[in-house]
Design goal:
Alpha-Beta Plaits, 22% strand, five-stranded mixed beta sheet, transferase, 2 domains, Ribosomal Protein S5, domain 2, alpha+beta, kinase
């Protein structure tokens, strides 16, 4: 029997200053944060899901692994093989950690490895965004790009390659907390302002541009000074119970900043040490926990993205 196991990491979309245009890939050591997919030629062919959050997944054609595999098969120039897929679903649905993107990327990346890389990373990236758009209601790259490519990714769809890697700071640590409520991308986008005054739009552009410049200049103090909530984040804070309490406590404990991951409800803080990130994440869990599947963990930037973890 031939088989391959791949891993697609979790990601932070809407990365503070870059709504829809900046996403970060996460590497964790205290919890598996991303989806693992095992592809094999074991008979009979089919799909199964395991893991803490598998119970929420559909098993019909709306399942993202099944949908993505069908999409991939249509692109092949050879006859698709009958394959078995086993998904280890380690990310909650509607968590703000790129749960759907992780499943999509794992499937496309895994199948591309299975068939000896007939397609480029660029093609996989574009197809990931298309499938993600059909699931969330709009095409956006800020989760699929970091999950596939790793690092901090800047999105500009007007360019031939819609994603560019941005240098970040290896010394920084993320504290994360998932409260165990579900916020879909569609519902979070519905409460955003439909328009912004020109001055506000200019300020948002300037904040993002200055942050990108500080990353390239390796200017950590300036980068951190720019990483603060703006009005696009503020409009979504009310969806997360005790957000302001958790933010206040994290900052008082020494975190540099505190914000919403993607559409939420996962929140994250940025700290200067692993020890501080652990302390802050546990306080966040105490402040934000709403259900039995709530969790807290720490992370750093994952520079690798999707990868093969085993093959036979």
């Amino acid at each position: 029997m031939k088989q391959i196991k791949v891993f697609a990491p979790a990601s932070i979309g809407n990365f503070i200053v870059g709504f829809d245009v900046l996403g970060a890939c996460l590497h964790t050591s205290d919890r598996v944060l991303g989806d693992e997919l095992t592809i094999s030629d074991k008979s009979p062919a089919g799909y199964t899901a395991v893991g803490e959050f598998a119970y929420k997944l559909p098993e019909d054609k709306e399942n993202l692994v099944i949908k993505t595999a069908a999409f991939f098969n249509q692109k092949l120039t050879v006859k698709p093989q009958k394959l078995t897929f086993e998904l280890s679903k380690n990310l909650p649905i509607g968590s703000g950690l790129g749960s759907s993107s992780s499943s999509i990327v794992a499937t496309l990346f895994g199948l591309n490895e299975w068939y000896k890389k007939p397609f480029t990373q660029q093609q996989l990236l574009e197809w990931s965004a298309i499938i993600e758009g059909s699931n969330s209601g709009s095409v956006h790259y800020d989760n699929v790009a970091p999950s596939l490519l790793g690092g901090l990714q800047l999105i500009c769809e007007q360019l031939p390659s819609p994603s560019s890697s941005i240098p970040f700071f290896d010394s920084l640590h993320f504290a994360l907390c998932f409260p165990d409520i579900e916020i879909t991308t569609k519902s979070a986008r519905e409460i955003l302002p439909k328009s912004l005054p020109l001055k506000n739009a200019i300020n948002l552009q300037a904040q993002l541009a200055a942050f990108i410049a500080s990353c390239y200049q390796n200017d950590l103090p300036t980068a951190l000074a720019l990483l603060h909530d703006n009005e696009l984040t503020s409009s979504r804070q009310g969806l997360i119970k005790n957000y302001h309490r958790a933010q206040k406590n994290a900052l008082e404990m020494g975190a540099f900043t505190f914000s919403i991951s993607g559409s939420g409800p996962t929140c994250f803080a940025i700290c200067d040490t692993q020890a501080k990130a652990e302390q802050v994440s546990q306080q966040m869990l105490e402040d934000l926990k709403q259900g039995e599947h709530a969790f807290a963990c720490t992370a750093q930037l994952d520079k690798e993205g999707a990868k093969v973890v085993a093959s036979d």
